[in-house]
């Protein structure tokens, strides 16, 4: 995560839904406990602080997918491929697909690409309509990549795998 770009979240409870989300405008490479905000299922701060503007989308992803953690990164490969393939990015016959729980061969999966919006409800609706349950990620066109997993380690792992797949597509054509 370069500079203050991107954001992270971890689900702390499900009923009610509570997430720890990185605060707005903080360098993600140097996080401290003061750089995290507790938010509710709508992404609103529960006990003060200013969460990422995208906290509502993190909460929506957690509720929709059952994820325990969400990672959002603004990578060159995700932005470029979102522009290049606005209908979705198709992956097939790649060993790296095992990293998101798919077979390496005889399977085709599409990483959804959705149009960006500053309205997190609109963005969440687009994500919900486009997502493929086999792919723990979605690209927001011109913006970046959202990836999730059962816990922070799996979310990070999925982020690394999907980013590798995107880099391959970007450089391999």
UniProtKB/TrEMBL annotation:
SMART domains: Aldolase_II
Keyword Amino-acid biosynthesis: yes
Cofactor: Zn(2+)
Pfam family, any one: Aldolase_II
InterPro entries named in the record: Aldolase_II/adducin_N, Aldolase_II/adducin_N_sf, MethylthioRu-1-P_deHdtase_MtnB
Domain Class II aldolase/adducin N-terminal: start-end pairs: 1-170
SUPFAM superfamilies membership: AraD/HMP-PK domain-like
UniProt pathway: Amino-acid biosynthesis; L-methionine biosynthesis via salvage pathway; L-methionine from S-methyl-5-thio-alpha-D-ribose 1-phosphate: step 2/6
Enzyme Commission number, as recorded: 4.2.1.109
Cofactor note (record): Binds 1 zinc ion per subunit.
Family indicated by similarity: Belongs to the aldolase class II family. MtnB subfamily.
Protein name, as recorded: Methylthioribulose-1-phosphate dehydratase
Protein's organism: Streptomyces mirabilis
Gene name tied to this protein: mtnB
């Amino acid at each position: 995560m370069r500079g203050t770009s991107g954001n992270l979240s971890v689900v702390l409870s499900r009923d009610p839904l509570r997430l720890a989300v990185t605060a707005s405008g903080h360098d993600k490479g140097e996080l401290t406990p003061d750089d995290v905000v507790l938010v509710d299922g709508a992404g609103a701060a529960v006990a003060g602080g200013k969460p990422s503007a995208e906290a509502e989308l993190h909460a929506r992803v957690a509720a929709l997918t059952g994820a325990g953690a969400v990672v959002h990164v603004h990578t060159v490969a995700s932005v470029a491929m979102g522009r290049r393939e606005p209908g979705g990015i198709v992956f097939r016959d790649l060993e790296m697909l095992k990293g998101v729980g798919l077979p390496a061969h005889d399977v085709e999966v599409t990483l959804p690409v959705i149009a960006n919006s500053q309205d997190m409800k609109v963005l969440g609706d687009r994500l919900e309509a486009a997502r493929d349950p086999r792919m723990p990620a979605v690209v927001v066109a011109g913006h970046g990549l959202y990836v999730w997993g059962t816990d922070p380690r799996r979310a990070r792992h999925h982020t690394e795998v999907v980013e590798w797949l995107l880099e391959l597509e970007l450089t391999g054509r």
